[in-house]
Amino acid sequence: HIPQGPVCTNLGLKPGQRLTVKGKIAPNAKSFVMNLGKDATFLGLHFNPRFDAHGDVNTIVCNSKKVEEWGAEHRETVFPFQKGGTAEITFAVNQNDVTVHLPGHQFTFPNRHSISVFDYFDTQGDFTVQSLSWE
């Protein structure tokens, strides 16, 4: 059973805006997920840091999803997360991609489905959200 965190359904994030998530990572964390998209079935960014899950160790896996169809996985080898630690992650929405700001590192992921407004956000797994802010 994967714990489900808060779900936002009317964010209204447009290019030039950003969402910042702060929280705690479980001491025995295997992985956690943050999804950003139009709705639950239409994800522009599936952000999945894996401490030890699905054969990946200390790897961030990103993807996109349209209904039940996943895209190609994108892997980041920089892994600035620690079990039992805190994390602050910012998703900055641009015209053609999303920039993910991590502690000491950032990368961009393409907006493959040309989502113009990101209304949906959820978190799952071994992460407890302490604050959400957007600007």
UniProtKB/TrEMBL annotation:
Any one of the GO CC terms: extracellular space
Domain Galectin: 5-135
Origin organism lineage: Eukaryota, Metazoa, Chordata, Craniata, Vertebrata
GO terms assigned for molecular function: lactose binding; laminin binding
Organism of provenance: Picathartes gymnocephalus (White-necked rockfowl)
Top-level lineage group: Eukaryota
Protein name: Galectin
Keywords, ordered alphabetically: Lectin
Stretches that traverse the bilayer: none
Gene: Leg4
